[in-house]
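Entry 14: structure prediction run for Trk system potassium uptake protein TrkA. Input pasted below.
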Amino acid sequence: MVIDNIYRLIEYPGALQVVNFAEGKVSLAVVKAYYGGPLIGNALSTMREHMPHIDTRVAAIFRHDRPIRPQGSTIVEAGDEVFFIAASQHIRAVMSELQRLEKPYKRIMLVGGGNIGAGLARRLEKDYSVKLIERNQQRAAELAEKVAEYDRLFW
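Run finished. Output tokens:
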């Protein structure tokens, strides 16, 4: 579960949290609204105009650490933490309305080859170039035998 949560944060740069439901078909994502996002300074009701073919719902907004019940007339402000639900395939599109999208990561460096570090490295290796730093030389050698693509570094 920890590995899945970290993986989703890497998969969606700029997201504060992403939780999947319905076997990964639907996601709840949390992003901080930044200047430059098309929806900043506009009412939530304009989301449909910006994304006519994407069905999404804003579940909550936190402004200055206080919850706001979102309504169509609610104006999105820079700095708001926006919780929204959408089909997983549309998460990036909705994020792009609230902030300038960051480029997807290509290279990932992980420190620690314990259960979480090694598990995350295995999960990431298909889509990313992974560098795993492990200070224990014996553990690094064990990991390298399992996965040839890892770069090994020691402290």
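Notes: The longest strand covers residues 56-63. Will compare against the previous run tomorrow.
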